[in-house]
Write a structure and sequence with these properties.
This protein is an alpha+beta fold and 150 residues long. Helices cover 17% and strands 26% of the residues. It is built from four helices and six strands, in the order αααβββββαβ. The protein has helices spanning 2-9, 28-37, 47-50, 117-120, and strands at 55-57, 67-71, 82-92, 97-104, 108-113, 123-128. The chain has a six-stranded antiparallel sheet. A hairpin with a 3-residue loop joins β4 and β5 (108-113). The longest helix is centred in the N-terminal third of the chain and has 10 residues, at 28-37. The chain is globular, with a radius of gyration of 14 Å. It starts with a helix and ends in a 22-residue tail after the last strand.
Length: 150
Amino acid sequence: AEIILDTACKFIGYPYKYGGKGPNRFDCAGFVRFIYRKFGYLLGPSAPSQFPQGRSLKVEDLHTGDLVFFGGRRGSSKSKRIGHVGIVTVVNPNDHSFRFIHASTSRGVIISNSTEPYYDHRYQGACRILPEKVSSDASSLQPTDAAPQR
């Protein structure tokens, strides 16, 4: 997860573009897909399609590297329709809040906090894509530019 986050953070400040899949512009799902693909994970092209690809998690079970999903901008903030995704960067176990990196429509790739008013009431759920235990040899987990195998 740390290597994935290090890679993701290199894109902070990159601009948002609806449907952007990288490497120079991203939408939220395109950003998550682009980052995870560098490590051999093929995720769906949209936030709703990425949600069922991992193991569903309760907010109190979040770890860095997990994906978090939010309701979209359209309609009520109580909408159950997933419209946004990000990657958890930091978890606060005291209050189950978290920080996450994502492609924001207004500011591009940034890190936000789950307690910000916009995200606080839109949280829909989380999933884990990464395996529970990874080899202690982190040098084997290097990003690749090659397309991963399905």
